[in-house]
Amino acid sequence: MFSAKGIVVFGLIAMAILIGLLVKLRIDKASQPASAQTYGNIAGLSVDQVKGVDHLVESHIAPTGLFTLEDQLDSLGVEVYAEDQWSAVPDPSLGIGSKIEIVRATPIKVVDAGKETEYRTWQATVGEFLAEAGIDVDDDDVVNREFSTPLGQDLEIVITRVGVTEEIETEAIDYEVIKKNDSTLEKGITQLEQTGKNGERTKKYAVRYENGVEVERQLVSNEVTVESQAEITLIGTKVLTYGSGEATWYSWKSGGAAHNTLPFGTKVRVVNLSNGKSTIVTINDRGIYGSAIIDLDTDSFAAIAPLGAGRIDVRLEKVYE
């Protein structure tokens, strides 16, 4: 019968033998040709295929004296991700060293609307991975890979988020300014007949955004939604007359004339009705006797008729500056 102490010693010897065999196995693998030790330019890796996708398999020998997997991995400088699968034999808690085998999940880089995120997965295709990761892709969005594309090491998936929206713009239509002559209004007088009002034009655009940036704007419709109303101003053309009758002449100050009722200083345009000629005089005298309505100085009379005419038919008009 073995004593308890003997059993413990025997167990330790067996473990030491096992570790020795594992170390020898690792050395034997390292001595194999380089072509058997290389995967994707990384030496010392093997490959395990799951669902048609190659997964990297790493084998590490942890030193003795460490009693947790975390400590063993830290001593080796090896990082294990939550998605990776691993095994350690014998159990790290024994502290006699372990052979650690890690099967890596497939690393995937996703650039979604310009934001880069690293994922790890055991799915086989792009579509299966996007579903697993909860990444929704709308019909308008653009993905650089078909959903059926098999996953591989360091595959990059780029998603361009596309949005097409309708945008409406309005712009004012300036009203037209119209000026109309009106013979019923006295010359020099203006009157607003109609107030001007701006109209409105509505434009609809189909706007395409990629990752939040406008890349295209297409005019869909262009309509006048409110008609403008012209501003109409009436311009008086009616010339006020002081009457018609006979004009005579007498020797008086040049540019002056006599009238029995118009205020002194009133300027009057005297129009010869027979030839249309006219002259402007200033009322500065009275004392007309007989049928004449105005008595002109000789220069003013001569400007519209020969002095020998003596009397002519005229129309007296208001002078507008």
Q: What is the count of structural domains?
A: 4
Could you tell me the radius of gyration in angstroms? 55 Å
Structural class: alpha+beta
Beginning-to-end CA distance, first to last residue: 145 Å
In N-to-C order, the SSE pattern is HEEEEHEEEEHEEEEEEEEEEEEEHE
Poorly predicted regions: 4-43
Strand content: over 45%
Shape: rod-shaped
Global mean pLDDT: 88
Strand order within the widest beta sheet = 17-21-18-20-19-22
Q: Treating each run of at least 4 consecutive H or I residues as one helix, how many helices? A: 4
Give the proportion of residues in helices: 10-25%
Q: Quick one: how many beta strands?
A: 22
Summarize the main sheet: 6 strands, mixed, barrel
Q: Care to describe what's here?
A:
It is rod-shaped, with a radius of gyration of 55 Å. The chain has 4 domains: 100 residues, no CATH class; 55 residues, Phosphatidylinositol 3-kinase Catalytic Subunit, Chain A, domain 1 (Ubiquitin-like (UB roll), Roll); 73 residues, Resuscitation-promoting factor rpfb (Resuscitation-promoting factor rpfb fold), CATH 2.20.230.10; 80 residues, Beta Barrel (Barwin-like endoglucanases). It contains 4 helices and 22 strands. With 321 residues, the chain is α+β, with helices and mostly antiparallel strands. The longest helix is centred in the first third of the chain and has 27 residues. The protein has a 6-stranded mixed β-barrel with strand order 17-21-18-20-19-22. About 12% of the residues have low confidence. β14 and β15 form a beta hairpin.
